[in-house]
Amino acid sequence: MLHFNRNYFLLTILLFFIEVGIALFVHDNFVRPYLGDVLVVILIYCFVKSFLKVSVIKAAIAVLLFAFSIETLQYLAIVEKLGLENNKMAKTVIGTSFSWEDILAYMAGIVLVIVFEKIFNRKKKL
Asked: How far apart are CA 36 and CA 15, in angstroms?
């Protein structure tokens, strides 16, 4: 099950730098809040696939459940309950506000993953 995939790892690094760029330099009402959330689940998916040899669907579902879990923690105001409201890292990683739009963005990201994987795997088999 453990296995290193260089292509997924390179995609992880690329997506990480894109996410950092968005966080540091983009302050709009679409790219940062929505596209960033779409990309973050793709980033996590690529990270998982970098080290684990699991099916596309299993990895995609696991990443989506992880994203939903984080969003649930935001709904429960876990950062405040843990007394971490002044911790910038905790606020950035966990987040501070629940949003149904985030849930939709995560789902859109996972749909894109599945579509791209299906297209890539079809071309790979030809």
From this structure: 10
Q: Are 41 and 63 in contact (CB under 8 A)?
A: yes
pLDDT tens-place string over residues 72-100? 999 999 999 999 999 988 888 888 889 99
Domain positions in the chain = 6-125
Q: How does residue 8 score in pLDDT terms, banded at 50, 70 and 90?
A: very high
Q: How far apart are CA 49 and CA 73, in angstroms?
A: 25
* In the block, residue with structure tokens 């749909």: 111
C-alpha distances in Å from residue 40, one per residue of 29, 63, 106: 17, 10, 8
Stated length of the chain:
126
Claim: this prediction has a pTM higher than 0.85: yes
